[in-house]
Specification:
By secondary structure, the chain is an alpha/beta fold. The protein has 17 helices and 14 strands. It is 46% helix and 16% strand. The chain is globular and about 65 Å long. One of its GO terms (molecular function) is glycosyltransferase activity.
């Protein structure tokens, strides 16, 4: 296969991701393998992590460079975490440049600091810069710390600078695309939506394992990062209501995932008197995860209703759907778009209503089956990664082939009533414009 640009060799992509090791970051791994299969040469810089401790590794033709990481425990310690990560990203980017070379840096946030690496190599060597917009960091900062202070304004500025230096931006949904266009001032023709579709080869339906139920009749499953904005406290409050107020003792709740809030939430479960009814599995292997989710009668997403979660697409929702599991979640814009009729929707941040929706589904096997079948069909027909892979490749065609592919998308955007005027001007003007005026 001959790619656009220099026909003598394939284009080389350097992916940088800071918050999860590869291949455990499923979106990044799907992107890396898709690009590799399409003929690109892919290198990845990422942190070490549980099950991914090798500093240098090649998996499926993808060259992985891992670095140490320091996990922040407070807002000010983030400076240390991100400073250490940036140091290693710069160092390893030089190593990749000399060992394998790269034509573009594909930066996956958080944080919105990788543009410093991408901007350096863009200005010095003319490398392309792709921003893969995983999280909206201003809203994430506010969700974590509940304030709009000086640091919040710094986070907003860093987001704008990231967009300003980007040749193209890849959004995980249309809410993020709107942010790139409106807040990031990017041209619509340079913003591509590539959703984090689940990989059905990984998410296999297998028989349930009775041991997950701990001898109880029903199981409710959750998978995800155990962080402050995930709203697991609402789930635990719902469990308390079910067990203590409604005197239901036939349901086991299994929470799979690791994160900074895990110890606090374990302590909260003890405080609420529900520790025997909640299994905290921690970070688990794919096999253990599939065992838990396939055993669950209902799967839940307790993400708090806030601006960050409202605009974000949660991978766990599509994973539940891929396994034909009915879902209970709070009513969030992107959560509803993803699940549609595969889910029941509780009132915003209302743990009692959340509990009621769980019990509604547990009490109706036919409805559980109906919601599960709808969700799996939606994933297979519309949301699975094979539907998204061509969109990623189209974005890269636009990156390397100039305006041709971008103009195709631009015409589609205009047809939907959006402006598609291409932004002109040199890099310096683009970098300065976010600082010249504020919305």
């Amino acid at each position: 296969m001959v790619l656009a640009g220099n026909p003598s060799r394939p284009k080389r992509i350097l992916i940088i991701v800071e918050n999860l090791p590869v291949p455990f970051d499923r979106r990044v791994w799907n992107e890396a393998t898709t690009l590799t299969k399409a003929g690109y040469e892919v290198s990845v810089i990422c942190p070490v992590g549980h099950g991914a401790s090798a500093r240098r590794e090649v998996i499926d033709g993808i060259h992985i460079y891992r670095h140490p990481i320091v996990e922040a425990r407070s807002v000010y310690f983030y400076f240390v975490e991100y400073g250490v990560a940036l140091f290693w990203e710069f160092l390893l980017a030089w190593r990749v440049l000399f060992e394998r070379g790269f034509d573009a840096i594909h930066a996956c946030n958080p944080p919105d600091l990788i543009f410093l690496v991408g901007g350096f190599f863009k200005l010095l060597f003319g490398k392309k810069f792709v921003f893969d917009h995983h999280d909206i960091n201003p809203e994430l900062f506010e969700a974590k710390f509940g304030k709009r202070n000086l640091l919040y304004r710094v986070v907003v500025a860093l987001e704008r600078l990231t967009f300003a230096i980007s040749d193209i931006s890849i959004a995980t949904n249309h809410s993020y695309r709107s942010i790139a266009i409106e807040r990031g001032r990017m041209d619509p023709a340079r913003v591509f939506v590539v959703r984090s579709g689940p990989n059905l080869e990984r998410l296999q339906i297998v028989p349930p394992d009775p041991s997950v139920r701990k001898g109880r009749a029903y199981c409710v499953g959750y998978v995800g990062v155990i962080g402050a904005q995930e709203g697991i406290n609402y789930l635990l409050e719902a469990v308390r209501h079910i067990v203590r107020d409604l005197d239901r003792h036939d349901i086991q709740f299994c929470i799979a995932g690791g994160g900074p809030e895990l110890d606090r939430l374990k302590a909260l479960a003890i405080e609420l008197g529900i520790a025997d009814y909640v299994t905290f599995a921690g970070r688990v292997s794919d096999g253990e995860l599939l065992k838990i989710l396939n055993t669950a009668d209902v799967c839940v997403n307790s993400d708090e209703c806030n601006p960050m979660n409202d605009k974000s697409t949660m991978n766990k929702i599509m994973e539940y759907m891929a396994l034909a599991k009915p879902i209970v979640q709070f009513d969030l814009t992107e959560g509803r778009f993803t699940a549609l009729d595969a889910s029941l929707y509780a009132r915003a941040n209302d743990s009692v209503d959340f509990a009621a929706k769980i019990l509604d589904l547990l009490g109706d096997a036919q409805r559980r089956k109906q919601l599960g079948e709808f969700g799996r069909a939606r994933v297979i027909d519309q949301l699975a990664w094979p539907h998204e892979a061509p969109k990623l490749l189209n974005a890269y065609e636009a990156l390397f082939e100039g305006n041709r592919a971008a103009q195709v998308q631009s015409r589609g955007v205009v047809a939907k009533g959006h402006s598609a005027d291409f932004v002109t001007g040199n890099l310096v003007r683009r970098l300065l414009s976010p600082l010249a005026s504020r919305k």
